[in-house]
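To start, one record:
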Amino acid sequence: MRLYRTATALCLVTPALSLGQTIPPELRQGLSSEFHFSPDELAQAEAGKAVAHIVPTGRPDDVRLAGLVFIKVSSKDFIEAFRDIEHFETSREVIRTGRFSSPPVESDLTDFHTSALKKSEVLACHPGRCSYKLPAEAMAELQTAVDWSAPDAAARAEAFVHKRLVSYVHDYQSKGDSALAVYYDTPSPYSVAEGLHSLIGLETPIAKLVPDLVRFTSEYPANRPANTEDFLYWQEASFGLKHVLRAQHVILQRLPTAGDPNCAIISKMLFATHYFRAAIEFKYVYAVHTLSGEPAIYLVSAQRSYVDGMTGVKGAVIRRVAEGRSPGRLAENLQLAKRRLEHP
């Protein structure tokens, strides 16, 4: 019985020794100080469980999430899998994903369909009030360029959206953030570029960790650092009551290390039809090894966004619901990535 109790106690207090790898001190310090991971959460991550939580920002519409998972895969294999974004980001919320060519072409959007675009909502759009996040000129063009009384109105609207989105992405690739939209769905116009620069500026520890990458993220396409690659993709996802079409720019930098490379990834949301005014995601791939010597990584995901409807009395209720659900969804997605990479 004494032997049984001793063995049981060891299993309870040392899960990391059997399933994962102790988090390296420098990574542990950053996770604790910047993203407020508790000792219990770090122990769960070492034991192989994905963990995630809300990180307070002091501002109701500024939503910040952080997640962590241990994956028995090399950093090189992770990067290779991540490049296949159409499959990597498949989840319960994501309906479909497509990668843009460089330069983008309309055939990149063959699998995207504007089934959620409603005639009544489109025709009711005007600067200051619209059900979709659109620039003022896009509202007018969508209303006048499409014959909404025609039998094929839905197909015409879809073709218009494809053409407009491809043009938008092309302009961004040429001009950078100056080409990003100014939304007119509310009485106060909202600049996507200003929102992104604000979010990036708030992440000062990340800027200290990878300064060249953060600089390139804001100044793209100028000042590209070494060991960097990037791509753009579109995605249709389901958040809340509406489907969201969004366009993303991913920038990946391999960082020099003695063994397998660490990697930093920043994703900018260039456009979203609903909910999000601006959003960024930072992923950090920290290469380690299991106790048996196999390559592995700790994957850190930090998401930050300015979200509609979070202020006021009604917004407080919405925020509580979002804060209750979002960490679980992030942890679920990290666990899904772990399962796919460990068991391809």
